[in-house]
Write a structure and sequence with these properties.
The structure is a single chain. With 129 residues, the protein is an alpha+beta fold. It has two domains: 70 residues, Jelly Rolls (Sandwich), CATH 2.60.120; 31 residues, no CATH class. The protein has two helices and six strands, in the order ββββββαα. The strands form two sheets. A three-stranded antiparallel β-sheet has the order 1-6-3. Strand 4 and strand 5 form a beta hairpin. The longest helix has 13 residues. InterPro entries: GOLD_dom_sf (IPR036598), SEC14/CRAL-TRIO_domain (IPR051064).
Length: 129
């Protein structure tokens, strides 16, 4: 049995926006034509796995949703409301296995973000200079 947990918490504060501060290299790009939508299907085979995504839309907004359809998680980019403009979406999607998720949680708890302690110490020393 696959349990789904999607938290709906409200608007994202503008202080969390990173578009102008962080350069992200996305794995894929696609165009969602005006008046249409595109969806990506991912089958989660093992309990405890997590679907993680990140995306950006160039120049304008796009609708986005996640839903379950016949035992598959579906990510949907929705441009059906746009009469004139196609949208270019860059995205990365990962399925994290439960052991990968656990190691990432441990790294975050230790404050290393998956980096070795030597790298973190070197970065700390450089930031002090």
């Amino acid at each position: 049995m696959i349990l789904m947990q999607i938290n709906h918490v409200g608007p994202v504060p503008s202080s969390y926006y990173v578009r102008d501060h962080v350069k992200v290299d996305y794995e894929y790009c696609m165009t969602v034509n005006r008046g249409s939508s595109q969806q990506l299907d991912y089958e989660i085979l093992f309990p405890g796995c997590v679907l993680r995504w990140q995306f950006a839309c160039e120049g304008a907004d796009i609708g986005f949703g996640v839903f379950l359809k016949t035992k598959k998680d579906v990510l949907r980019f929705d441009n059906t409301y746009s009469i004139f403009q196609a949208k270019r979406v860059s995205y990365t999607v990962e399925v994290l296995l439960s052991d990968q998720l656990q190691s990432q949680r441990e790294a975050l708890t230790n404050g290393t973000n998956g980096k070795s302690s030597n790298n973190v110490q070197a970065e700390d020393e450089q930031s002090r200079l």
